[in-house]
Amino acid sequence: MVKNTLKSLLKKIGLELRRVQKTTPPVLATQLARHSVDCIFDVGANCGQSIGYFRALDYSGKIVSFEPISHLYSQLEQRVTEDSNGVSEKCAIGDSDGMISINVSGGHGGASSILSMSERLRAAAPDQAITHIEKVAMHTVDWAVEKYYPSGDRLFLKLDVQGYEKQCLLGAKNSLNRIVGIKAEFSLVKNYEGEPLLYEIIPMLYGYGYYPVSIEEGWSNTQTGELYQVDVCFFRRE
After folding, report:
1. Which tens digits make up the pLDDT trace of 41-94?
2. Cα–Cα 20 to 30 A to 123, which of 136, 152, 226, 228?
3. CATH number for the 26-236 domain, one of 1.20.5.420, 3.40.50.150, 3.30.479.10, 3.30.565.10?
């Protein structure tokens, strides 16, 4: 009766009372909670956009952001200072420790890679052409785990490294038993010279004990609809 009275009152002023339908939470939010993730490594963090993304998923744990490119890292540092549980490290992540050259792209810098762009990518994204090359420090996931996650086994690895995913995974071999999930952007066509495609990465991750739980459209050709990259989440079978 109270509800009907309220509906009548609202109707008089042009409003309608409706039941709000609960929406299903994003798959990644469910999986992060299900696997009790307490630390995220954001590799290829750019300006720190993923910090807001993970916080929007109700993740409140530690986020360690890795970005090698100077001007992007400056913006990332500022973003990290605004997060109560964030840390940043200026370096690339790969399969060894040392120094390496990275090709810095134009635009938002999102096409920057240690690998060279393919002709396909140059033609499809002329605004992302390489503007200069930087010499940067590179470390492995194993190194980062020892420094930022010395104990625990609830680590989540996010990779946005433009074709360098395999090298990052090879540099994580000693830490895989502590990494419960991986989210990465994988190519369906050759965007960078020497990069592995998704169909080559899936057997590798299956061999490590991970299985895909979600696939989202990443980058596509807006004119032809051709899909170039997808974001895939993998979690370990436990």
Report:
1. 999 999 999 999 999 999 999 999 999 999 999 999 999 999 999 999 999 999
2. 136
3. 3.40.50.150
